[in-house]
Design goal:
Shape: globular
CATH architecture of the largest domain: Alpha Horseshoe
Number of strands: 0
Number of helices: 15
Structural class: mainly alpha
Helix content: 55-70%
Order of helices and strands: HHHHHHHHHHHHHHH
Largest sheet: none
């Protein structure tokens, strides 16, 4: 039996008391895991996070409960400065649902000092959710790390091309996501991402063609072209 502080017990009891089977059914239709899932909305979890504030110890306790919503909440309240490399590897190995993966990568892991190191490592792994986490992390960094140089993201384009034939749904969508986000950072990266997409498009792979077509549609759109040129 895992240790839970009074704060953790209170949150777990709240989550369980709000169990919504219909919401869980709806989540399943979107490919979200129903294991230890109670159907609690993201806005409600964010409300709890705002009330509790940053708390690394509580975040670790919530993660260890194995409850779907508690793990998302853990990402909202953890302190990126206290997150260790080992913690990141342990948590990523626990990922069993794309939404938990994306919420953790976009709200916590991208703010840690290990973010780029882990992204580079995880995109080379074979496990579906670990690989997705790598590309989700790249996507989050492309949006949130305003200080990073273009070269940092240009270096990821070869790995994106290398993974563009991976037919697994959660991987291919993350590969596509990272390509699009990189291509929206600047004029320079937009050109490089479009170039990568055109090379991906020529691969003998239905998955690669889907990734390329979808990315090119957005990256060449008037809205994106206007946005990158205004930066």
């Amino acid at each position: 039996m895992i240790y839970m502080s009074s704060d953790c017990k209170e949150i777990v009891n709240t989550i369980k008391s709000m169990h919504n089977p219909k919401n869980v059914e709806g989540m399943a239709r979107y490919g979200i895991s129903t294991r230890n899932t109670y159907g609690i909305s993201i806005p409600f979890l964010r409300k709890i996070a705002k009330e509790k504030g940053q708390n690394h110890k509580l975040a670790v306790e919530l993660w260890n409960t194995g409850i779907h919503e508690a793990r998302i909440l853990a990402a909202y309240i953890d302190d990126p400065g206290n997150v260790t490399s080992k913690q990141m590897d342990n948590w990523v190995s626990d990922f069993d649902s794309w939404d938990v993966c994306d919420q953790v990568c976009s709200n916590l892991f991208d703010k840690t000092r290990f973010a780029y190191q882990k992204a580079s490592k995880w995109i080379t792994q074979d496990e579906e959710f670990i690989k997705r986490a790598g590309f989700a992390l790249i996507s989050a960094l492309a949006v949130h790390d305003k200080r990073a140089k273009d070269e940092v993201f240009a270096d990821f384009l070869q790995s994106i091309m290398d993974s563009s034939t991976d037919e697994r749904n959660f991987v291919k969508k993350a590969v596509n996501w990272s390509l699009r986000q990189i291509g929206k950072r600047s004029v320079n990266l937009n050109k490089k991402a479009i170039g990568a997409a055109l090379r991906i498009e020529r691969l003998d792979s239905k998955t690669a063609r889907w990734i390329a077509t979808d990315a090119l549609r957005e990256l060449r759109s008037d809205a994106v072209q206007k946005r990158v040129k205004s930066k």
